Amino acid sequence: MRFISFRWLLVLGSLVLPSITVRAQATTVKSSVTALLKASRWQKRVLLLCAPTATDATLLRQRQLLAPARADLAARDLLVHEVLLTQLSSADKKYLTETLRVAPANFTAVLIGKDGGAKRRETEPVTPASLFSTIDVMPMRQQEMRQAKQQ
Asked: What dotted CATH number matches 32-150?
């Protein structure tokens, strides 16, 4: 019987862990919108990109705008979550339309703060700079930036 060295176990573990992480994220993404927002509360800001279909032109443009800003999104603890309005449960549809005031037939971007409240709502793609200016004036973000300077 051959023993695998500790070094090889580390290499194998590094190959297996990313796939586990990806699966875990995919499971989270497929959960309900309300569950996602509940799990993110006090942990992450959430940008909901709501569109009728995955090929919606406005959604595609929003993806293009956000793609180069991934590091800045992460620095602000911002989770971007696409919501296809045709694929939601009735409870999620009700929450989005009644609570967050999302029109089911149109693109809407909703910024949710760490406290769970809607901070910004747009029906057109929002630039990263505009989005970051909204986030960076929030009291919790100001506190995060002060703490980062002290470290």
From this structure: 3.40.30.10
